[in-house]
Write a structure and sequence with these properties.
Low-confidence stretches: none
Distance between the termini: 47 Å
Structural class: mainly alpha
Number of strands: 0
Radius of gyration: 16 Å
Strand content: under 5%
Order of helices and strands: HHHHH
Mean pLDDT: 92
Number of helices: 5
Helix content: over 70%
Largest sheet: none
């Protein structure tokens, strides 16, 4: 018996629901991007700095620092796609916020 996307369980259901725009924009933007994404990036930055403090090579520290980049790009795309389902004002605000967030977590 084939399961629908809404019945999926497990680690991939999170990503599938976001990519197929089955989660509300507010949830994807505020919880998944701003809270979880920012927390992941803060932890990765801390671990990258610790790696430098423990005399790890610079490429290793940079790899640790940029480890959340795939999640960042995914959640940015999910916000962008989900914004198509709401009115223009909310969509523009969410997309602009997503751009600013992506720049901030990638550069800082």
């Amino acid at each position: 018996m084939r399961m629908s996307v809404t019945e999926l369980a497990g680690p991939f259901a999170f990503f599938t629901r976001r990519w197929q725009r089955q989660a509300p924009l507010g949830l994807v933007f505020w919880r998944d991007m701003v809270v979880i994404g920012s927390a992941l990036n803060i932890v990765a930055a801390f671990l990258g700095l610790m790696a430098l403090g423990f005399k790890a090579e610079l490429p290793v520290a940079l790899a640790v620092f940029h480890a959340p980049l795939p999640y960042n790009l995914f959640i940015f795309g999910a916000v962008w796609r989900t914004a198509e389902l709401v009115d223009a004002a909310k969509a523009s605000t969410a997309r602009f916020g997503a751009i600013l967030w992506l720049i901030a977590v990638t550069v800082l």
